[in-house]
## 1
Amino acid sequence: MAHRQAQRRSSIHDVASRAGVSAATVSKVLAGVTTVKPENAQRVFDAVEHLGYRVDPLASDMRRAKRRIIGAIMPEFESEFFGQMVSELEGLAEQRGYTLVAASSRESEAREKEVLARMHDWRVAGVVLAPVRNEHGPAAGFMKANGMTGVLIDRVLADDAFDTVSADSAAASAEVARELIGKGHRHILVIGLGQQAATVRARLDGFRAKALELVPDVRIDVVLSESEVEPLRALLHDYFDKGAKRGERPTAVYSLFLKGTLVALSEFRRRGWHCPDDISLVGFDDAEWMQVTWPAIAAVVQPVRQIAAQAMDVLFARIDGGDGPPKARLEPCKVLMRESVGSPGSGPHSGGGNRQ
Amino acid sequence: MAHRQAQRRSSIHDVASRAGVSAATVSKVLAGVTTVKPENAQRVFDAVEHLGYRVDPLASDMRRAKRRIIGAIMPEFESEFFGQMVSELEGLAEQRGYTLVAASSRESEAREKEVLARMHDWRVAGVVLAPVRNEHGPAAGFMKANGMTGVLIDRVLADDAFDTVSADSAAASAEVARELIGKGHRHILVIGLGQQAATVRARLDGFRAKALELVPDVRIDVVLSESEVEPLRALLHDYFDKGAKRGERPTAVYSLFLKGTLVALSEFRRRGWHCPDDISLVGFDDAEWMQVTWPAIAAVVQPVRQIAAQAMDVLFARIDGGDGPPKARLEPCKVLMRESVGSPGSGPHSGGGNRQ
DNA sequence: TTGAAAGCGCTAACAC
DNA sequence: GTGTTAGCGCTTTCAA
């Protein structure tokens, strides 16, 4: 015996014959055309109800040239940030009667382009692309070359062909600088990933500019790993080792991205340093766990909902034929100063205690 | 001037006329049929190359009745677990030439059913459903009623209509029990969410059975919140307050799900308790951050890759016509005992120190 | 107010 | 070996 056999679904013709009208009329009724005789419309509704009929959206799109599908390409799905982003985008697409098809580029530009090509094959109406690196990658070039409609988000600054939406990293980083300087930090280490060039640069520059403005002789060290997280671990290790030899050590670390914050914490662990007594820490990107640890980790919160909402707004404006030069949008972040930040010089386990 | 106008993509007919053959021949060449004259095949390849032609997968599926699309429905996208799951499933689907379309049910059974109906409208070849609650929800019923092909994962035990794949929660929980009992814990609190009935029950029973087997008079308290995380916070608060009045307190907490671990940590914070000196903690579900905090949090690691791989295997077996009664598969977990677990009675900040 | 006809881009039968 | 024909399920002229 065949197990769970998929029965043929009723088509528009089944509805038509049951209602005693043509398929064209059914289509009109379902599309809300008002020129249909009420009596016939009712018969159609009855038939639809009885048969449990539902339009096949793909067949429908087939005829209409533009498909009601939005493609979303994210660097990864594993983090809270992109998880929330996909979730938001999905809801926003649905609200407009579109389906979101999400794909992960797995932090690879090569794959990003492949995935984008697939989206193009699917003839999606538009694409929300969060590039692996920045707006100058091969994927954006592909979109341009193929006349695709799209919006670039997150790791982008501005583009001459596509609208962009991202967090205002520079402003947030300036605020972090103000906070750290205000607490008395004069030697700060900034760590980041060079791959995410667009935003890392903005964050670094925003931080440095404000810090130097407030205290011209502040010392800012920078440790950047080109494209992988693991090397950063080694670089950071070396950095602290060398500093130890010279008897110097930064009093605060600002990590420009989430994994960097984890790497920093893990390096602190290894050395037995505690926040904020031995060293202060602020990370770009918030996560749920950061509030429940000892100490709670200070973080820059990206406005995921706002970015998603803006992205969809501008994307649909383009889909609906909106014209004009592309705009670069920046959404403000929130900076949450939590217990991982204290004042330097208070010495191990002495001041700013957080263990009541 | 119209900005970025999408040019019409070349169709199979464009390729056909350029190669001087019929559309059917092009289709055959591209499908790898070997009966085509090599010379013509070459002309087709040349034309494809020249025009940058790519098959429209949706149009192709339209004709072939079964669409090469797999639907994946997850309770949420925000957590590491489901993020990894979607990522894995996406890769596995691609390997077989299918596209994964993922949707979030947002922990709502009502939405889960709607999303599933949409998948059905899309006529997906199969569905990987991670139900909000368990295998008896309305979504599984819908799948059954509509003869859909699918596999149930994660929050499921066994089903009479669909294959299921999940982590072996009971075995892992038994191991947690063995570890805690071994360390000398005799009063343990277990917290969970009633909504995830299927697995919570398995985890609870597995834990309790083993603990009682090892130490018949062990005390196991249970705090379950019906369906929301927030009430759990309040319940936990009350539980500890009441215990304090009587001067008793569990020496270890086992959280049956990730958010519960966060709630527990946050409650410990509020009371100024530290792990493992004041209380031990083990959580079901691991996360990257758990290794870099002080202390590192002990956790049960679910075998995401294995679950995804098994799910896709059994799903495609069904899609390819595989018959026979549904099977319930359990994949073994790993239990990582980290510093958040110590021995009871060593008193605050006295033993099992983790601050070298 | 309605339905017949013509496809969207593709593939599977079936002739030739 | 290859092309013709006939659709998949739907929408949209356009003529009646």
## 2
Amino acid sequence: MSETTSERDGREVYDPHAVQARWLPVWDRLDLNRAGIRDGAEKKYVLDMFPYPSGDLHMGHAEAFGIGDVVARYWMRRGYDVLHPMGWDSFGLPAENAAIKRGEHPATWTYANIDVQADSFRRYGISFDWSTRLHTSDPGYYRWTQWLFLRFMERGLAYRKKSAVNWCPNDQTVLANEQVVGGKCERCGAEVTKRELTQWYFRITEYADRLLDDMKDLEGSWPERVLLMQKNWIGRSTGAHVDFAVGDRKVTVFTTRPDTLYGATFFVVAADAPLAEELCAPEQRAAFEKYRDEVRKLSDIDRQATDRPKTGVSLGVVAINPLNGEELPVFAADYVLADYGTGAIMAVPAHDQRDLDFARAFDLPVRVVVETGGEDPAVTGVATAGDGVLVNSGPLDGLRKTEAIERTVEILQERGTGEGAINYRLRDWLLSRQRFWGAPIPVVHCPVDGEVAVPDDQLPVRLPSDMKGADLQPKGQSPLASNDAWVNTACPKCGGPAKRDTDTMDTFVDSSWYFLRYCSPSYDKGPFDEDAVRQWMPVAQYVGGVEHAILHLLYSRFFTKVLHDMGMVDFTEPFSALLNQGQVINQGKAMSKSLGNGVDLGSQLASYGVDAIRISIVFAGPPEDDIDWADVSPSGSVKWLARVARVAADVGALPAADARDDAVDRAVARAVDDVTRLTESHRLNVSIARLMELTNALRKGIDGGAPASASLRDGVTALATMLSCYAPYTAEEIWSRLGHDVEGGDSVHASRWPTADPALLVEDTVTCVVQVSGKVRDRLEVSPSIGEDSLRELALGSDAVVRALNGAAVRTVIVRAPKLVNVVPV
RNA sequence: GGGGCCGUAGCCCAAUGGCAGAGGCGCACGGUUUAGGUCCGUGACAGUGUGAGUUCGACUCUCACCGGCCCCA
């Protein structure tokens, strides 16, 4: 009796755990997933978004990496030299919080979790090239993160400025715009407030146009919704800058509707913008400050809620409309945001809903300047934003919207009071964090020389190893600030006493270039070996969750473009194709502790085995769709894999012979042809269905009369190789049952993808459907090569058709040889 | 409010504009069996959310509505 089966009632039973125990050590020894060892083979880089080391793997990892593994293994089987690397995004807040709780250094928790995950990935049978393993928290990695920061600084792409920033009161750190979701901290869910702070930024806005325009290269190979989300995030809008005079000051606003300038009846400044304070008349100061303090308590989400009544306060000054010299009262209000555009707007209540709401609340005039055919906004309370003909607008009267916009810009330019302009929703990337567990910003602040970059040969600026537990407690500034020994240093320029920058970088900086490091993970002359990168990059297939649609993917694209401009890489987009897998949910909802609907991966694997879980995930539906675990039946997968094992065992036991069976050969060829196409196009659920069909066909071949062993052996061989991408253990098991010496290196994971004989894909006869008026009336068995004319004759001669026509004359006959004829009576 | 995606048997899902069903779960039945379990096999169940339109022909394309999800406000 084989060690992988047990006898029960005289029948073999498939034991997934025994199969795993048998092959895992053999694979460890054979080390089959190394990249760069197939001479002359075309290269393909398959990348999974690297994980954060939070505890052990969960269902989400099982899905994402399971899908990525199918893709990687498929290309390996197809003979490509595949790079399928692995590492950890190991800086970040949870490690720090755990360290505070446990009185440890964050590295302790981090690296312990990484080891647990690494072993789980290994047992989960993912085809990683483990020699690529990297951790962004290793000094050997963050040295180069710091190095890249300094290059950005040299190019003016990293800079420091003071402004109102997003502040998470819970995590005690600033956040990038991208990390504020619906007014809340993306990580902890706390309501984000604003703080005035001096922080480091990456000048991503300088790349806004290229990030937008280069998306055309990604169309078709990235999910459309991701491209759309990035497009919306960058938010390019064209319009004009218009200069208003307020007292002796010039205040510029951005508007997408310069054509409505004559409709401006008041002027609004964001209450929390420094500009509001500067413009405020002395007699209004008390009222303004009271209002501003109220506004500062509000979150952005409250401020932008559309159903909220509009509030504001007069600043006691007027702004002069540059076009008609009209005096517009200036208000401070909270519905204008300080960091969008210039923080000030011209308000055109007739044609902008928010302005109209404000005008009605404050009893301000509403002047229609575009006749859209809609009802009077002053009466209906509904602003008319559409196209129309300009009225009440002096020289613009009679023009349509587009012409009026052009003309207004011309007039403004002639007078020197404005110009055409493009505005972006995208803000510069705020990268400083007041936290410990991240790459220190490699800058020294010197009383003499100011901001001084740490010289390359002094990198990395290492994190101190002696800080733990309470030392890391958030205090509103980086924990590093309290470590005098670390902070105090010599200025690299003058040698005098100086202090290190105590902030660390956003962990998204670490993950914006890791895919490059994978090409040469231990390279020590730069962040990556440019030759290695030239060989592997760009990534042929990237696999990961849609939650990174904006953050990580936009940042990585930005980094790649900067590196391209630095001459370090010869491409401008890092990821040629992107696959967003769905989420694993349970009972219609995301798994969560509070709902108590979590599904533990470990216990699923213990109950059903690795392969059954992998199959269940892939078979549940299209990879992009969410999987509701309540709809999944892992025991069904076990049943199928056991059936596969039995089929293979039965075929392996057949006496060697040359007998062939045409039906089996055709079924195998069809399966190979379909599964190849389906796997390649990521239709993985349908691939599994075809493999199940093939299993059924092989079963039939075994049970029906005299089994044709040659055909069946070929079928099981093809099945094993195709299955190796999906269920690596079971595939190896049946491969071995066919007599392959796996221990000696003849593993299914070194086998080549089967090819289908085209002759076997052509059927002898096909069923031709004959319709009358679109209704099926007859079926004809015809040759696949039948001509249109003879098929028409055949169909018209059919008794069933004659009966259906019932003497009616024929108007047309649609012939789609060889599968369909549609007879249309008059 | 704007933009996008999705509604197919009891359930999950298939179907280059051409026979609504590939595969699985569940169910029923038959065979195997000491067994209602395993295994082998057979079968039933929907006319594609609703209503129009285009077409010889619509699950597929267009429009509206209903329901669900996502992004931006």
